[in-house]
Structures are given as structure tokens and as C-alpha cells.
Amino acid sequence: MAEGKGRLVVVSNRVGPLSDEGKAGGLAVGLADALRRRGGVWFGWSGETSDQGTFREARTEEHGHTSLVTIDLTEEDVNGFYLGYANRSLWPLLHYRLDIAEFDRDSDRAYRSVNQRFAARLAPLLREDDVVWVHDYHFFYLGSELRQCGFKGRIGFFLHIPFCPPEMFTALPASHDVVRSMLAYDVVGFQTEADRRNFVAFCVQELGGEEIDGGLVQVSDRRVRVGTFPIGIDADGFAEFAASAEAGEHEDMVRDISHGRHQIVGVDRLDYSKGILERFRGFERLLEDYPENRGNVQFLQVAPLSRSELEAYVDLRADLEKLAGNLNGRFATLDWTPIQIMTRGFTRRALAGIYRAARVCMVTPLRDGMNLVAKEYVAAQDPTDPGVLILSRFAGAAAELRDALIVNPYSADDVARALQRALNMPQAERVQRWQSMRRTVFSLTAEHWCDSFLALLEASGTGSASDFATARI
Ligand code: ADQ
User: Fold this and answer.
1) At what angle do helices 235-242 and 372-380 cross, to 10 degrees?
2) Three-state DSSP class for 296?
3) Would you say residue 396 lies in a domain?
4) pLDDT digits over 288-298, tens only?
5) If you measure from the C-alpha of residue 267 to the centroid of ligand 1, how many angstroms do you get, rounded to a whole number?
6) Cβ partners under 8 Å of residue 76, min gap 6
7) Site to substitute for ligand 1 among 134, 372, 391, most atoms within 8 A of C-beta
8) What is the pLDDT of residues 108-157, one digit of tens each?
9) Is the CB of 351 under 6 A from ligand 1?
10) 37 CB contacts (<8 Å, ≥6 apart)?
11) b vs e for 398-408, b when ≥16 Cβ sit within 10 Å of the residue's Cβ?
12) Known catalytic residue: 176?
């Protein structure tokens, strides 16, 4: 364990894995690395349900200086807290989808209760000098609940998804409670400056607070650091995956099935925020407006199923399959199928190979906190013959990857134009754009994200924590 520093205690809905054996995402990689370096605890949901739920004995796995500690939820908790409040209310709302967000008091109650019980289970495991880092929209209330339990050390919070403008966030019946409770953290971090601004605007407009010195927000007697920390990937690790034998096999397979045609790829969890339907319409527009591409390009969409218990996700899958079916019916020939969707998962090495075989990668979410696929695509490319990244202006990654072709994902015309440009881009321009994006991806890594957040959290001191006097909201 690093000297002079307390343990790092990470809290997130799902826990681990600690080593990147090919399955971990950017979040896991960055955190696992920090936990390995300084020792600590990773606390979260086991992914299991049981009758006792959060009251059942915690499961602990020891890995060197790091413990993975997980607790169960009940079936009712999963429905109210996870599927209900987190994924039917907060996820759509924070992704600017007020039209499909659902609000009901039972799931609000379940969410608060799970946050409170998680805090009550975590508090006895904490030491005075521990640094607690809470992740994402599942645990907005966890910090204030830990304060209620008497923990006086530093607590930080990072939101992986966007924070919508206050005019929209106020539609959440508990919006004031949520933001007030976030002020119990010592540092609140966002992916982009736009998200940070929206949060500060809520504090100012709705809670009568003020922004001080750019990096601090004050509401009543509570002063909190609010910062921007764009998440990155383990770029060296991903480039190694791209050079592996498994990646090579997948690259060859994709090249074989494309028969020398240009390959376009999309890789996203099947989620309405990812703009997959709109992307398909953009591809259709390419075939309509630039007919020379018919028979000469192929689009592979990899979209592993997620949250399939929710109706919006079931509907999306049906809509996508219908649109792809219509498009194929309209344009396919005996020896060419324009679009293919796969809902299976791949290992990260296999994914790296798929990225490498693709001349174009389309990352066109309607709204996204960051989007790690964009960064993985860049890291996986062949330096002498890289592909082109088409990136939505509404992905957090667009603030950093300015040399991608930036598009408005709602405009099929804009997407089709960018596709046409990408498919015809000279090698020298591809190399020059890629080199510039590569510099960003390899310097603003997962490790950098983690270290810069923790540096600010450590520097923020514990003084402000003790005066957090608000009663449980
Ligand atoms: P997600 O919404 O899950 O993350 P993203 O950042 O793109 O989105 O990460 C997805 C990860 O899943 C990538 O690492 C990707 O490689 C992997 N993946 C996708 N399809 C796969 C498949 N078929 N097989 C295997 N792996 C697959 C949330 C926010 C994002 C934010 C991240 C991290 O919504 O905006 O970037 O957290 O903060």
C-alpha cells in the first residue's frame, strides 16, 4: 500500500473485474489499477438477488491489497431501484429523453432506501483516513447517507453519463433532493465542461447557490469542488489486444466476409441513447444519394443486448431489426447484404480485430457521457493505414477527438455526407487525423482520469465534510 495515503474505497453498482483479461471496460481498468497501487476496497452489488437482499452477509474476495466486497439486492430492490428509478427515470432524463422518462414514488422510495442501506453496510468497513469514490447515477444519495452514518473522511463522486440542463432536470420530482445530496461530496466530477456547467447552473438557478473561482460551487454553507474529468481507456493495453493473434483472426474473418468491400462498423450496447436507428437511416441515405456505394460497402453493427427487461429496449431491438430488414430488402443483391446486426458479445481482443478491419467506425450517439468505443477504435488502428472515425457532436468524446468527422446524428444527410467523405478519404489525410487523435487517446488515459480525480479529492481536504449538516433528505 502507498505510504501516507489512506485506502481507496470505490463504490459502483457492479464491481470488478480487477485484471483486464479481455473483458473489463475502461472504468474497470482505471479503477483496478488505482486499487492495485494503493490498496483498498471495491464495494457494490453482487448482481444476485436473495430474500434477505442487502441484509444478507457480504461476500468478500481478497486480491492482494484489494478486497472486492459485494452485497445482494432483493427482487423488489432490483425492480424499484435499478430497473425503475435508475433506468426508467434517471437514465433517460440525464440523456435528454424527457419524453420517455417515467417517474413514480415507489421507485423513488426504493432508490433512496437502497442508497441508505448500501451506506449502512459500507460505513462499518471504513477507516478514518479512507478516501471514498462513488460512481454514477445509481448512487446520488450515497455520500449524504455515509455522512449520516458519521463518516468524516473524503468522499468524491463521478457521473459517467451526461448531466442535462436544469430546465430539464427539474422534471424529476426529487431533483432538488438529488442535487442537494450531491453537495455532501467533497468533489463532484463530470465527463465534459457542458455537463459541469449544467450542474452548476442547477445549483445557481434552483438552489440559490453561486459559482466561485470556476472550480467551486457554494450553496448555503456548503462548498464543493466541481470538475471535469474526461474518462479514457488503457490505450497501450488496447493496442496490445489489437496486435494479438485473436484480434488477427477476427480482422481476417471480417475482411473475408467483406470480399474487398469497404467495411463500416458500429459497436454499442443496444440502447436508445446510442442513435443506432438514426445511424441506419444515415447509411440508407448514403446508398440513396451516392449509388456508387451500392455493392461496395458493408455495414456491421455489433450491439449486445442490455436491460432487455425494459420495454423501451425490447421495442428498440424490434425497430432496428425491422429497419435493417427493410434496408436489406430494398438494396441487397444475390451476392451482397448491405447491413448486418449481431447482438452477441465479443472478447476485447476480438473487438480490437473487428475495429482494425473497419475502414470507418460510426459512433453516433444522440447523447453520451463520453463513449469509449471511439477511443478504442483509435487505439486499435494500423498506423500506416488507419480508418476514419465518424463521431457524434453529442458524445462527450467529441470535445477531445476534434479530428474525427463530427456529425449531427439526427441528420441522415449529414451522416451520409460524412460516410461518403470517410470512404473516399486519401490515406495521407487518414493518417494525419488519426495521429492527432492517437496523441489524445494515449495521453488522456484511464489512469490519467483516475489519478487526476483522486489528486483533486485528496487536495480538497476533509474540513468541509464535518460541516455537512443537512439531515437525511
Ligand atoms: P456505456 O454506455 O456502456 O458506458 P461506452 O463508453 O461506449 O458506453 O462503453 C462500452 C464498452 O463496452 C466499451 O468498452 C466496448 O468495447 C464494450 N462493448 C461494446 N460492445 C461490446 C461487445 N459486443 N462485446 C464486448 N464488449 C463490448 C457509460 C457511459 C459512457 C462512458 C462510459 C465510461 O454511457 O458515455 O464513456 O460509461 O465512463
Assistant:
1) 50
2) coil
3) yes
4) 999 999 999 99
5) 9
6) 53, 110
7) 372
8) 999 999 999 999 999 999 999 999 999 999 999 999 999 999 999 999 99
9) yes
10) 2
11) bebbebbbbbe
12) no
User: What tens digit of pLDDT does each residue of 27-50 get?
Assistant: 676 788 788 888 899 999 999 999
Residue 312, H or E segment: helix 311-331
Question: In the beta sheet, which residues pair with residue 301?
Answer: 266, 341
Picking from 107, 105, 170, 122, the residue whose alpha carbon sits closest to that of residue 11 is 122
Atom of ligand 1 nearest to the CA of 346: 24
One-letter amino acid at 370 equals M
Question: What's the pLDDT score for residue 122?
Answer: 98
Cell numbers standing for residue 334: 444475390
Ligand 1 mean position, distance from CA 259 (Å): 29
CA–CA dist 230, 447 (Å, integer)? 11
Number of residues that make up the chain: 473
**Are 110 and 147 within 8 A, CB to CB?**
no
Q: Determine if ligand 1 sits within 6 Å of the CB of residue 269.
A: yes
Radius of gyration of the chain (CA): 23
Rounded CA gap, 411 and 281, in Å?
A: 9
Q: Which helix (H) or strand (E) holds 115?
A: helix 105-122
Q: Are 66 and 117 found together in one domain? A: yes
The total number of structural domains that make up the chain: 2
- Domain of residue 258: give its range: 235-442
Whether residues 325 and 203 fall in one domain: no
pTM: 0.96
C-alpha of residue 24 to centroid of ligand 1, in Å: 10
291 plus 218 within the same structural domain: no
Same domain, 305 and 346: yes
- Is 223 part of any domain? yes
Place of cell 470556476: 214
- Is 302 a pocket residue for ligand 1 (Cβ < 6 Å)? yes
Q: Are residues 266 and 415 in the same domain?
A: yes
Q: For residue 239, count other CB atoms closer than 10 A to its CB.
A: 20
Q: What is the mean predicted confidence (pLDDT) over 3-25?
A: 77
